[in-house]
Amino acid sequence: MNIVRATIFHTPRNPFFDANALVAHVDGALAIEHGKVAVCGDYSAVVKTHPDAPVRDLRGGYILPGFIDTHVHFPQVRVLGGLGYSLLDWLEQCTLPEEARLADAVYASSIAREFVGALATHGTTTALVFGSHFADATAALFSAAAQRGLRIISGLVLSDRSLRPELHQTPDAAYKDSQTLIARFGSHQYAVTPRFAFSASEAMLSVCRTLIRENPDSLFTTHINENRLEIEQVARLFPLSADYLAVYERFDLIGARSVLAHNVHPSVTELHRLAAYGATIAHCPASNAALGSGIFPMRRHIEAGVRFALGTDVGGGTGFGMLKEGLQAYLMQRVASEPITLSPAQMLFLATRAGAEALGIADQTGDFETGKSADFVYLRPPENSVLAGVLERLEDPSRVISALFTLAGAESVKEVRVADHAIVNQTN
Predict the structure, then answer these.
(1) What is the pTM of this model?
(2) 201 lies in some domain
């Protein structure tokens, strides 16, 4: 056993429904044994219970649960910063040409290492990742994540129309390649991933249904209701479906293990159906703003009982930082037509525990309850930085968290651990 001493924050309960959900230990201790949390609490109490455990003193910084990104695209690292487009134009002119380059296995392996490294250095310990349209490239992603020690769930991206021809697969090939990847990497870390209904035929969506039925431990992830033109095109392609969600429902793809990105423009009935299924929305505020898609109707989701968590949506988004994504969510909800003022606890929850719930792993990670994996990020701002000066006089935990979400970036990420294994370590 070992003990890490620092200020500790986590949200083991949902602060949207529990005003006392934030747990803060100003002089805190995280006792870790065999890669799992033995106990989290005030330092004086923890050290009294475990007097012989060695202590690493990290006071002056802050320990948070590792961030959980519920929507991010591995092949899009090199298209970050493509501003000035709407969704479908951005896909055609920026993203799809780059994604086609991942047919080159050597290039794909390089991008996989770059992608995984960027997640880690921003404090992300778990991510639901859109893989590549190419099986070898998707395998390279799984391998790079395993080598780094990062927890990911991903899958081959499936499309057979409306994109560049070199990104299309036949349904038979998509099924065979997907099953090969599942056999190699395990269904528990696999996500059946049609790109979106716009680029998937009925035959391809039928393959998705078969894959899920044959691999019930897998997740299902895709896009929904991101852009108004996209929604119109989906309605044209699936005239017998009442709305976007109904396309996926027709193929039995929606359930508690479904994570759907965006949902910026849902109907009332779609929200109620999503809530009934227990599905989760990956809310990507930076991407929604950058591509001009709209403002996520968070209040409507809450009132309908629809779960949601945060995603960076690299490269439609603006980077890998989940702290920045939480801040962007706060800013956009302040000016939404039905505004919400997110609390610091709610921002922290959306970046951590909510993601674990979305991925079906809240029993393993997302907070510091006893028995969970010791996944954490240690934040400590550089000396003489603006953030260091702001934090110097703050005592209220909520104000501290607000400052971290507002000003902290990768430069403040000093250590990142998954199951107490260091994937980033700049504390020495």
Answers:
(1) 0.98
(2) yes
